[in-house]
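hey m, so remember when u said the tokens were messed up on ur end? i reran from scratch. heres the input so u can diff it against urs
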Amino acid sequence: MTLAGRKILLVVAGSVAAFKALELARLLLKDGADVTGLLTAGGEKFVTSHALAAITGRPVARDLWGETDSHSLHIALARAHDLVLVAPASADLMAKAAMGLADDLASTVLLATTAPVLWAPAMNPAMWAHPATVANVATLRARGQRFIGPADGPMAEPESGPGRLVEPADILAAVQAHFAAGPLAGMHALVTSGPTIEPIDPVRFISNRSSGRQGFAIAAALAALSARVTCVSGPVALKNPPGVRVERIETAREMLAACERALPADVGVFAAAVADFRPAQAADRKQKKSTMPDAVALAENPDILATIAGHAQRPRLVIGFAAETHDVIGHAQEKRLRKNADWIVANDVSGDVMGGAENTVHLVTGNGVETWPRLPKEEVGRKLAARIAEALA
């Protein structure tokens, strides 16, 4: 049991997703953790203290003023735990924590604790995307606090988008990774994955065959080494890797903007197959076959790898990918120098690599070329993550 003896304070804030906190508590206990529940007033609207106490086997903390020895309860809770896990985390509680407000038990504990804090947000997509929430998340991240999720999908309201609480099993994996204290603990990794799509009109677009599988495997491997990972992904049919914050985008310009928002980072791995060009003008209505132009004028997309490699907040280690059909190593060596990357991971995509489960890559660095045997993409991800950990040690 990887969490044996770990003391976790599980803060349950107001969200319809709060019912999942009961399953999360059960999973944490099953893995050996010692769990204490703390319900906010909003959390109590969805989960009863009796239910949470029945699962954890401990009284649930609820009221800053109504508990025995309440004058020191927040300090006792703040000091007694190895991790404060907020799941679900509401926009309100994150705002209080970012501003340093302390008007209830949960916000007071968050202000007083010296333990690491892991947030698992759950809210409406518009609330998650609001500039105030974006700023609050950035503030909490800058203080070293970590986030898992939110996931993208249907909400309790008849809406869909980023804002769903990630599944309890994935939160458990993030907690396990935190306590694993791997070699990348305390570091931030930025990974891009998948294709971009560039619209011609609302139904047609330019894209490529990238599945995103290799990028997601790298993101998962970095998270397994305890890195905080932000993965910016184009449209792929893949489940988010455990413990990884995934931001879904469509176009190259959206991907670059998301990458710049994610900085600073210790390492950037740019595995996405970004479209080099986009239609110069995208029609706002579907074009009829009879009125389609004979040619589509193209405009060049931003070069994400070169931009981040030359950025004022350049990661310490910048890694690009080169998908080639011939002279793979030669093109990769030239690309590394031209784009100011530290490493290039090159592969031959003339076969089934973009949709397949395996990959053969060449790691091109300033010290030469290292060719790896054909491996499952997950193993390629683990090998690359291990090399990154060595380089950043």
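this time it looks ok to me. Residues 213 and 377 are 7 Å apart (CA to CA). if urs says something different then somethings off w ur setup not the seq
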